[in-house]
Amino acid sequence: MGFFDKIKKGVADAANQFQPQQQQAAHTPQQQHAPEPQHEEVEEDHTDEQQFDVAGFDVMRDEGAFFNAVLHMESEGMFGGTDESRAEICARFGIGDHSHWLVVKESNYALLARKYGSYDEVAQQEVNWRSGQMQVHQQQQQASMAAKGGFDPVEGVTLEAWAAINASIIGGANWEDLLKGAGIDKARWDRVSAEWNARMARDTTFAITTVYGNAFQAASKGKYGDYAREANAARVANRELAMPLPMTLEQYWEILYEQDYGAKQGRDPVETLKSCNLTIVDWTDLSTFMGYYMNRTVVRDWKQFEPMHERVKAKMAAKYPGVKCDVDIAF
């Protein structure tokens, strides 16, 4: 699955179940619980006054409690609800049967739409809230992994140190000089690498991969290293980015298309990136930042993103006539 496919899946999940999942480059039941995106301006409540009932929710003060209820009432699975959690929510907020829940849900969304000015913005806020819940979950996974010894050093080499050396190697540094400077011989390095790779392969929670990815980018000396570090910090804090875009979305999407068209023509992906004045490290760092930016804005700004993407798509198709492109994204 390419980056565009991941973004497209993320957008679909956001629109339907808001279950974002992000992994660093090393790495539900369908329910339209958010109001339809065409409701841009909120002039009046769209819920019939006789049907208006917010139950026990106070979304003006605690929208998270409502978003959590939607998550549990509308979905199942790892991050969804259970019969027990739904019964507890119904009892706590005074929700009767399913028909009553539908009225309560739409009533509270209507209030939030008044608060934020549009249903698209409410949907974005819910995506952001769920991203925060995912971060809490990931932190719990990391704590559990640490308690089990999953982050214990391998022959004295921590995960962070291993990631930093790998980042330098991929960045073009001489690996022999790096190992010598760290006091690690080749045989020990190979054993350390084999064990850390094995731990990541066994870790179905991605706790080790996530920590490795953050450490790798923390050590990045690429021209977009600061952007990747900012995106990772913003993700952990579930906040907006504090740095401006390093390029326009159109420019970023053009690079994505260049890679796909290059692959169809049999070009070396490293050379394709080089033609865009990027290294593999640059691309990884850049994608981390731009991907997070899209996750924080795409539900709100999909109407702006869609024509922007169509312009890029047409431009690249004209540049490579007769070449079929597999890039697929829809807003």
Attribute tags:
331 residues, mainly alpha, globular, disordered N terminus
Give a short synopsis of this structure:
It contains 13 helices and no strands. It has about 325 residues and is mainly α. The protein starts with a helix and ends in a 12-residue tail after the last helix.
Structure notes:
- With 331 residues, the chain is mainly α.
- It has 3 domains: 1-27 and 207-331, no CATH class; 28-140, no CATH class; 151-202.
- 63% of the residues lie in helices and 0% in strands.
- The chain contains 13 helices and no strands.
Topology summary:
Elements (H helix, E strand, L loop, with lengths): L2 H14 L46 H12 L8 H11 L4 H19 L2 H29 L11 H12 L4 H8 L3 H17 L4 H12 L6 H13 L11 H16 L4 H7 L4 H40 L12
Helix pairs in contact: 1-13, 4-5, 5-13, 6-9, 10-13, 11-13
H/E element order: HHHHHHHHHHHHH
| Global morphology | globular
Instruction: Round the Cα radius of gyration to an integer and report it.
Output: 23 Å
How far is it from the N-terminal to the C-terminal residue, by CA? 18 Å
- The whole-number mean of residue pLDDT values reads 86
**Fraction of residues in β-strands:** under 5%
Structural class: mainly alpha
Low-confidence stretches: 1-48
Q: How many separate structural domains?
A: 3
Largest sheet: none
Quick one: how many beta strands?
0
What count of helical segments does DSSP give?
13
Helical residue percent band: 55-70%
